[in-house]
Amino acid sequence: MFDRRSAAAEWMDDAAATEAAFAGALRDLARVNRLSLAYRPVLRWLDRLVAETGARRLSVLDVGAGGGDTLLRIAAWAERRGVTVTLTGLDRSPWAARHAAAAGVPAEWITCDLFALDPSRRFDVVLCSLFAHHLPDPELVRFLRWLEARAGRGWLISDLHRHWLPWGFVWGAFRLLRLDPMVVHDGPVSIARAFTRADWDALLAAAGVEAEIAWAFPFRWSVGRRRG
Q1: Mean pLDDT by 10 residues, the chain (228 residues)
Q2: Distance CA 110, CA 94 (A)
Q3: Which helix (H) or strand (E) segment is 223 a member of?
Q4: What is the pLDDT of residue 22?
Q5: Count of CB atoms within 10 A of residue 36's CB?
Q6: Up-side HSE of residue 156: CA atoms within 13 Å toward CB?
Q7: Which of 29, 186, 191, 199 is the most exposed place for a label (fewest CB within 10 A)?
Q8: Which residues lie closer than 8 Å to 164 by C-beta, 6 or more apart?
Q9: Alpha carbon of 203 to those of 56, 207, 209, 210: distances in Å?
């Protein structure tokens, strides 16, 4: 089951999902992200970027931004670090934009497929936290090249490690916590759709892109590139 990426569908990717169902899932996903330290790899990577480049102003795009909880954390990080940030969230679901606005996310919001984004748009930093596993391999190869073209100072993908241990934990814990049905279904599927180190090596090679691959606790990979 875990020797290769699953192609099973996630309910969140269903265009027919209602606003109420999507909003309930986003609320519980923000809770899961907080408890599982999902923001830590992103904020540590931003710390390293600022330390290495001395940048005090950054335009940041979050791809697959969902309800904007990662952008909220980046806004708080920037205030603590004295960095001026211009934040943009991109998600193809119209419900994501509404949820982010209601949550007070201080960002411009773009509702479209990532590959339909205006070709003229460029950003200092492009981030993708817990979204890449939604893409099949051919689209991921295309996405890696897209990241190279869009990000001036660097880009980061933070996503799950495919392994039976987190799969089993999530399968049981999400049920015990009585999370939203969409989250209960999609949690284990996300891990089954996720990555091993060998997957990332192959994807980067296929894209012709060089990047740093690092392990992040718990059961995550950080794949990215920083430029001066």
Answers
A1: 92 87 90 93 97 96 96 98 98 92 95 95 97 98 97 97 95 94 95 97 98 95 92
A2: 9
A3: strand 220-226
A4: 85
A5: 18
A6: 28
A7: 199
A8: 1, 2
A9: 32, 6, 9, 10
**Backbone phi, psi, residue 217, to 5°:** -75, 140
64: left (phi over 0), alpha (psi -120 to 50) or beta: left
Q: Which two tokens stand for residue 20?
A: 């109420």
What is the rounded CA–CA span in Å between residue 220 and residue 194? Answer: 9
- Cα gap 136→114, rounded to integer Å: 14
Task: Say which amino acid occupies 120.
Answer: S
> Could you tell me which residues are beta bridge partners of residue 127?
62, 156
Q: Show the tokens assigned to 211.
A: 């990047």
Which residues fall within 8 angstroms of residue 32, CB to CB, at 6 or more apart?
A: 38, 174, 179, 183, 187
Residue recorded with tokens 């904020």? 43
- Three-state SS for 209? coil
Q: Running DSSP on this structure, what letter comes out for residue 126?
A: E
pLDDT at res. 171: 95
Count of beta carbons in the 10 Å neighbourhood of residue 180: 22
